[in-house]
Specification:
Blueprint (H helix, E strand, L loop, with lengths): L1 H4 L6 H20 L10 E4 L5 E6 L5 E5 L3 E6 L2 E7 L12 E6 L3 H4 L1 E12 L2 E12 L6 E12 L6 E6 L5 E5 L17 E5 L16 E4 L4 E6 L6 E5 L12 E5 L24 E2 L8 E6 L9 E5 L4 E8 L2 E11 L7 E6 L5 E5 L15 E4 L1 H5 L4
Antiparallel strand pairs: 1-24, 2-3, 3-4, 4-5, 6-7, 7-8, 8-9, 10-11, 11-12, 12-13, 14-15, 15-16, 16-17, 18-19, 19-20, 20-21, 22-23, 23-24
Length: about 375
């Protein structure tokens, strides 16, 4: 060690210049994502505030929600605020502006749907979840309020409005957490702790499993990512398992069928009970994913895989299905583990690459200089970052 130190003891001036150089180098490495190949991917857009949902329009624009109350559109690498609802949206804990989806006929009707939490009362604070539809003016690209689809669903500081997704049946599906009151997930008179199904105009479909009710499935704790399997048309979801005083781990991937009971809070993990569904796959008794947005991949080597992001798990996950049974998951692979921090959502772009939302400014992450951001990886680049 003495031989290594001796050359650096020549003068204080030398040490000062070395310190300046090292400090400059470290800052440059932190600020320039593209100079760290295989670690942080290519930054698509940065300086966001808690991005939550991603949706590509037919023209290639990316719509995304930022939880404090902004819908941002990214076009040709430039971001702009499409709609600001900061004065209406209440970001308390995990509440705020959350799920968003575009109409399957967006190219002709320009409808944008999103859910958010607002305060019906501020003294005492009473949070409520609401689902609305806006229309983008074709000439100006400006949002125009269209209608409220569903309102008055009680909220809380956690487990509120979740993902939004149109099914192949043309119906709109909306995940709804149980507002951290577990027993409500089993109560069919309540809309919390459920996955809801409604028409694009906000009506109850006549063929819903419970007559006159929006409820499609129940017994959910906090369903997040919703996605429809291309081969079967079935709905799949990611869902948070127990936490804190309720236990640990056992995050779920569910195949969601109409009218089924997914067990919360009666069963969890691999537990079984008559009339309740055990998840197709879960994270185990010692591992937490905190799974969020999920999609089925449409092209490339990962085609037909179910890919989702993890917050506490700090990774991208790929569920690989049994080639002989599309209802069975053979394995769940992990990518980008701890390399980006908390991952909130993922979308497949028109270019076949995966666009991943980083959410380190959600109050629980370690924020880097460019956070929050959307980063882009090809499937080949992700394979290089597999555990």
């Amino acid at each position: 060690m003495n031989q290594l130190r001796r050359p650096f003891q020549t003068s204080l001036a030398t040490l000062a210049w070395i310190s300046i150089f090292i400090g400059t180098f470290l800052v440059a490495c932190e600020d320039d994502d593209d100079d760290v190949p295989g670690r942080e991917g290519t930054t698509f857009v940065d300086n966001l505030d808690t991005p939550w949902e991603l949706a590509f329009a037919p023209d290639g624009r990316l719509f995304l929600t930022e939880r404090p109350g902004t819908i941002t559109v990214v076009e040709n690498g430039e971001k702009k605020a499409w709609l600001k609802l900061d004065s209406v949206v209440q970001e308390v804990g995990e509440s705020g502006l959350l799920g968003l989806t575009l109409d399957p006929d967006f190219a002709t009707n320009q409808y944008v749907y999103f859910g958010y939490t607002y305060a019906a009362s501020k003294g005492p604070l009473q949070l409520v979840n609401k689902l609305v539809r806006y229309r983008e003016d074709a000439a100006t690209k400006q949002p125009v309020f269209d209608k409220v689809l569903l309102d008055g669903i009680p909220g809380n500081y956690i487990h509120n409005s979740g993902g939004l997704e149109f099914g192949p049946d043309g119906m709109l599906y909306w995940g709804m957490g149980e507002r951290y009151e577990p027993a409500l997930a089993q109560d069919l008179s309540e809309l919390v702790g459920k996955i809801l199904r409604l028409t694009r105009d906000g009506a109850v479909p006549q063929d819903n499993p419970f007559e006159g009710s929006y409820i499609f499935s129940y017994g959910h704790r906090n369903p997040q990512g919703l996605a429809f399997q291309p081969q079967t048309g079935d709905l799949w979801s990611t869902e948070h398992g127990p936490s804190d005083e309720q236990g640990c781990c056992q995050d779920e991937i569910n195949r969601v069928l109409p009218g089924r009971n997914y067990g919360w809070p009666v069963i969890r993990g691999s537990q079984q009970r008559a009339g309740m569904e055990t998840p197709v796959y879960h994270s185990g008794d010692t591992t937490t994913w905190a799974p969020t947005g999920g999609i089925f991949i449409k092209q490339g080597d990962w085609k037909d895989s179910f890919v989702f992001t993890g917050l506490r798990g700090q990774a991208l996950y790929r569920a690989v299905f049994d080639p002989n049974d599309p209802a069975k998951i053979s394995n769940v692979e992990r990518y980008l583990y701890t390399k980006l921090g908390r991952l909130r959502n993922v979308a497949e772009g028109p270019d076949g690459k995966l666009y991943i939302a980083i959410s380190n400014q959600d109050g629980r992450g370690d924020v880097l200089s460019l956070d929050d951001r959307i980063v882009v990886y090809s499937q080949a680049e992700l394979e290089a970052n597999k555990d």
